[in-house]
Amino acid sequence: MINTKKCAILTMDNLQDFECYDQLLVDPLTQLGWQVDFISWKAKDICWDDYFVVIIRSTWDYQNDVSAFFKVLEKIEASHAILENSLEIVRWNLEKTYLKDLEAQGIQIVPTHWYDKFDTHSLTKAFNYWNCEEIIVKPVVSANADNTFRIHTQRQLNDQLQLFSVFENRAYMVQPFIQNILKEGEFSTFYFNGEYSHSILKTPKQGDFRVQEEHGGSLLKIEPEVTLKDISLKILQQINPTPLYARLDFVRNKNNEFCVMEVELIEPSLYFNMDPQAAERFARVLDEKYSK
Q1: Has residue 45 been placed in a domain?
Q2: What is the CATH number of the domain that holds 150?
Q3: Whether the predicted pLDDT of 2 surpasses 60
Q4: In 10 A of CB 134, how many CB atoms?
Q5: How confident is the model at residue 226 (pLDDT cuts 50, 70, 90)?
Q6: Can you tell me the distance from the alpha carbon of 236 to that of 252, in angstroms, rounded to the nearest whole number?
Q7: CA 192/CA 246 separation, integer angstroms
């Protein structure tokens, strides 16, 4: 018999090299009557029917075997358990080409060129098209800034061999490097079941451009500008069904406009550590959603 308040939090085998804050969910969920189990997505012989809801959280190595990851999610979706976020949302969010959908709806994204496999002319085209000195090259499917390259126009020939080895048969995207990542940082807004929770500003360490803590980035809780919240809500209105959780990442361009970098709906860190009420807020939203 399914425990109507039994929750599985999907994680990975080893989080040793990562900063994870999902343990902060245990107390508030327990206080609301939920039993919480942390289960690696690679774990064998799990009876997903034993759970009411399975929440994808710190599965931060899934990009190394996307096919196997999807097989697990499909098993969960086929069970009596409810998968959050839904498999439909995960499929849409897996490839960063979802940004094309948002752009078509009038959402401003970081300008992007898309390629199915490595094109030796893609770097030169990007530098010329955007009249910039630095670009970003990254996979269409990625996490944790894996295989993300910051390329300077004076080094493009030196970097091509490495880029070819990574993207020879792999879809990738090219973007102008937005200098405000270094000057100001990357903004993230967090929503639980469409309800605003909190916001942070992430800044890279000196000499780096990656904002993740694992790469030395720093975090600051902020009160977002009204414009940032308005854009976030406009994006969420394009996503159906409403995701249980969403993290939306932005950078300000040279015209002082917020551009979408990512809409994270699969396994983003929700930074429960940055807001003392965030974990309780998440637990309440989950409980209200499934206790009706």
Answers
A1: yes
A2: 3.30.1490.20
A3: no
A4: 18
A5: very high
A6: 19
A7: 7
Distance CA 206, CA 202 (A): 13
Do 168 and 138 reside in the same domain of the chain? yes
DSSP state of 1: -
Task: Report the pLDDT averaged over residues 21-46.
Answer: 97
- Cα–Cα distance list, 97 to 31, 115, 207 (Å): 40, 11, 29
The token duo for 25 is 């969910």
Q: Does one domain contain both 85 and 117?
A: no
Please check whether residue 1 lies inside any domain of the structure: no
Owning domain of residue 28: 6-91+284-290
Other CB atoms within 10 A of residue 277 CB: 12
d(CA 200, CA 221): 4
Instruction: Give the Cα separation of 85 and 82 in Å (integer).
Output: 9
Q: How many other C-beta atoms lie within 10 A of the C-beta of residue 8?
A: 24
Whether the CB-CB separation of 193 and 215 falls below 8 Å is answered with no
Among 176, 191, 219, identify where a domain stops. Answer: 176
Closest by CA position to 167, among listed 141, 186, 143: 141
Residues 118 and 85 in one domain: no
CA-to-CA dists, residue 161 to 81, 119, 169, angstroms: 46, 12, 14
Predicted confidence band of residue 215 (pLDDT cuts 50, 70, 90): low
